[in-house]
């Protein structure tokens, strides 16, 4: 069976995956770009073309960041990661990601306002569904052609998949900042360490990389 | 001026410094002994005689744990760290710590039910005061003879001193467990990274040691 994976999901020391006040100009709300500061200089994030041009780093942070795409056949994301608005999507709104999104696979977008799929350049097609985590995962598996599924975020989506015990591999990055408010990743996950082997390593950039691997695999 | 320090204060990945349901038999509530599992084998904790006899470890965990007593002239602790009960203390109740507590300095206990000081063996005297963090720190400085002050916990006490910006050095340990409920350390501390240089290192025991050093020192 294909595996369900989370990569590069970053939280503050106090456990927030995004700040308060998310909007078009500030996708992470008052957190600004601080949560992903560690990632922007990496080869992997540079290659996405979202944060300027240049030669990316190839150190510890890149070693983790670079795993995100390998073997992935589809992503599942929350509505907030697709678009900062609420309610039905207008026909002309194509999300954050521009004409050539960095996913290059089918992407299942969880929303209470389904609409027809949106096919963009580079192999990314967004599928908008009102579905439980289990249902979304079934659809993603159909679309993924036997490859793995990435749960792309935000915090609520990752948390719901963890609570439903649907995730096999989880890479969390802890950034040394305190956001104080926003969306918490860790709520309602008491005892999760019983299901996962948890390892950690620090990076010279100041973040901590945590890997959670399902026990018994 | 003497410095205000926190050592060996341990939180779960989801930020709880103690579990729910603290009582005499379970000082950390449903967390049991899991938060301090990293500390028990160290020389420093072995020497306190609280967790059995034996030769303690002298590795990375001990390197951090061992800093707790050096240069300390007084501790400030919350009522919960002294005793698990609520309301006035009865005359025969002498706290968790036995006849020869491991502090060997004056200890200021924050409580809404002051009582006369309690002098025990080995140089530990408990002073029970109903005081703000600033007032408690003034008293502790008078008692400390020019040495540093340790803020001993629990989570609420450390958090209140951080919120009042009274702490110079903070050593926090993150244990790879998810408690789900209990007392949070990090609430209301947005932007604390502006005041501290934060460093981290992982230990083979599985915990992460974080040091917070006041900027500009």
H and E order of chain A: EEHHEHEEEHEHEEEE
**In terms of quaternary structure, what is this?**
homodimer
Read across the widest sheet of chain A, the strand sequence of neighbours is 5-6-4-3-7-1-8-11-10
List low-confidence stretches of chain A. none
Mean pLDDT of chain A: 93
Morphology of chain A: globular
What structural class do the secondary elements of chain A suggest? alpha/beta
Number of helices of chain A: 5
What layout of secondary structure does this protein have?
The structure is a homodimer of 217-residue chains.
Chain A (H helix, E strand, L loop, with lengths): L3 E9 L3 E3 L24 H5 L12 H6 L6 E7 H4 L23 E5 L4 E5 L5 E5 L3 H12 L3 E6 L1 H9 L5 E7 L7 E2 L11 E7 L5 E7 L3
Parallel strand pairs in A: 1-7, 1-8, 3-4, 3-7, 4-6
Antiparallel strand pairs in A: 2-9, 5-6, 8-11, 10-11
Highlighted features:
homodimer; 217 residues; alpha/beta; Dihydrofolate Reductase, subunit A; nine-stranded mixed sheet; two-stranded antiparallel ribbon; 11 strands
Structure description:
The structure is a homodimer of 217-residue chains. With 217 residues, chain A is of the alpha/beta class. Chain A has one domain: Dihydrofolate Reductase, subunit A. The first copy, chain A, contains five helices and eleven strands; from the N terminus they run ββααβαβββαβαββββ. Chain A has helices at 43-47, 60-65, 79-82, 133-144, 155-163, and strands at 4-12, 16-18, 72-78, 106-110, 115-119, 125-129, 148-153, 169-175, 183-184, 196-202, 208-214. The first copy, chain A, starts with a strand and ends with a strand. The model of chain A has no long low-confidence stretch (mean pLDDT 93). The interface between A and B is medium-sized, with 25 and 25 residues.
